[in-house]
TrEMBL record:
Annotated segments matching region Disordered: 282-302
InterPro entries: FAH, Fumarylacetoacetase-like_C, Fumarylacetoacetase_C_sf
Domain Fumarylacetoacetase-like C-terminal: 72-277
Pfam families: FAA_hydrolase
Protein name: Fumarylacetoacetate hydrolase family protein
Stated family: Belongs to the FAH family.
Molecular-function annotations in GO: hydrolase activity
Biased segments, Low complexity type: 292-302
Organism taxonomic ancestry: Bacteria, Bacillati, Actinomycetota, Actinomycetes, Streptosporangiales
Organism of origin: Actinomadura rugatobispora
Amino acid sequence: MRIGNLGGRAVLVREDGAIDIATSSNGAFGPDPQQIYESWPEFRRWAPRAKGTPTPVDPGRLGPPVPRPRQIFAIGFNYLDHSDEAGTEVPRHPTVFTKFSSSLTGPYATVALSSGMLPDWEVELVVVIGTGGRDIPVRSAWEHVAGVTVGQDLSDRRLQMRKPAPPQYSLGKSWPGFGPIGPYVVTPDELADPDDLAIECLLGEERVQASRTSTLLFPVPELIARLSRTLTLFGGDLIFTGTPSGVGAFRTPPRWLRPGDVLTSTVEGVGAIVTTFVEDSDAGPGERRVAGEASAAGAGRE
């Protein structure tokens, strides 16, 4: 099944339109898209019986399908070609950081850029936890997944790598709008092989990233197992699983996102998200932000 956030309400998305979950379930599940992941086993049992009159899906009304996760994990250098382009050693353990939830936005978002940034793109497969827990075995890890979605781990390399402090991965990747996800959460049973999906990113008409998730150094089940050895995973948590090569920071010369650019990020069987960039001064109410600190020289890593 495909689960979306249509105008702030949780919906099941089918070929003929969207079914409102709260209405169809007679209130057993509320309209909040986040709630269903917090009661995932019950929702998963009910969803096949959902009935209702489908309504057309207006893409402009789609919000982030998981709007308020308790935890967001992001994995660095999880594709060999990305590690190679960055000139780093192949990691022996997952490189884990976080994005803050205030960075999340929907699948057709307009994101404001300030003149103090060095903005970069990173297309990623994003995993949504369904049933959480501790010490989850690799062999059963997919059973704990509600679904997957498409994400962009947008990064301000200047803030991320400013000197003299250590790298600020989480801050540099958490400006408002720097976590677009969507268009829907797709359950693993919808995919022919959830461990082998084509993934790509277009900047305008140019393909800047292309790979397959089967080349992840730490596949989804291993990421879940390793994370849950240390901490408790909760329903609705997100895992940004890493990006393949082709980011702007490691091009010669480096290439940064600019106002007017459009990114199209796609994962096979899941869908595409489109992110449009504007000047900070062009952003609407509540979208404006001050420029990132510009004291650092050069690009960042990851």
